[in-house]
Amino acid sequence: MARDPFKLSTVDDRALWVTSGGLCAKCKRVLIFDDIEKKVNIGERAHIIGKGDGKKAPRREFAEEYEITEENVDSLMNLMLMCSPCHHTIDNNVKNYPPDLLFEMKDKHEAWVLNRLSQNKKAIAVLHKRKNGIPFDTVLLSEEIDTLILDAVALQEEFVDFSNEGWKKAKKENEEFFKEIVKSKREYAGTFLYIFPLSPIPLLIHLGKLISETVPAVVYQFDRDTQKWCLDDVSVDSTQKKIIINQTDEVFDALVVTVQASGTITQEDLTGVIDTPYQHLDIRIENPQLNSVLFSQDVINLRQTFRKEIYRLNDLHSYKKIHLFYYGPAGLAVELGRCINENMLPEINLYEYTNRNGIKYARAFSI
Hints:
CATH architecture of the largest domain: 3-Layer(aba) Sandwich
Domain SMODS-associated and fused to various effectors: 178-367
InterPro entries: SAVED
Helix content: 25-40%
Number of strands: 16
Structural class: alpha/beta
Pfam families: SAVED (PF18145)
Strand content: 25-35%
Shape: elongated
Strand order of the largest sheet: 11-13-12-14-15-16
Number of helices: 9
Protein name: SAVED domain-containing protein
Radius of gyration: 26 Å
Oligomer: single chain
Largest sheet: 6 strands, mixed
């Protein structure tokens, strides 16, 4: 026997999704996420007092007590938004999920969503992870950053082809990925982009350039020691990193920019990579090493220094080409990319750390 269709209007259905924040009322799992070439919806409308008669209608015997009839069984008051596993759990374990518990669960979840909407930024999670094939889990991300994620846009296919054609293809995939970000941003007006990057550096700088500084965005850094995403430093004794700037005096048509935050880039590293004379701008923190730059204030200071110095020198000398070498965290790479305006700067060549065949850096592509 076919199940009766839901007597729920489009407006009420959307209201259910909005009041639930697009999350499962039981486990808080994000119910719409990106899969290969399409979005997947695992959300289900779960009845508290079941619809129909007999065993196929969980908790139906309580209908009269809670004033549920055939006319209002599909109303918002009797529906919860859940993922499929949680929906099956409550309906197959009725003894442990009585109506009182579920009505309370529904009320608490919707109040929690409303509170987060009023106090926190609404976010679209941008997941760019092209190192190794293990994808990010948006559920864990949502719990870790305590932010309401309304949508997630992901590019998580491992990048392994470091040839010229491989980089060209990856750059094109970045551009298609950005179109998906724009599409989500239009659908969820007023949201911030929460960016979680773990990919080859040239792709992240390019992604940052596409997003630009005009789009409200929060870029997280991944702490490999704690396996946590970082933003603000909450420690009492935190001190900002000292930034050191050096530049050579002789001016040429090309400018080489080195940014050193997680380790050092030596003059020998550049030998054999750039075959034309160049002026050199070096931006570094004092004693660069892994995990030196994790928190937002240090990222902001380095981003502002990079922007100020590269535009200052280009305004003075009008370079024909810029070569960018970077040794730092993934999140800062995105932020540097957001500073790059193609209408104000010349072509910028991006380089990937390879350490193959005795050469530490190889050109990836230009932006």
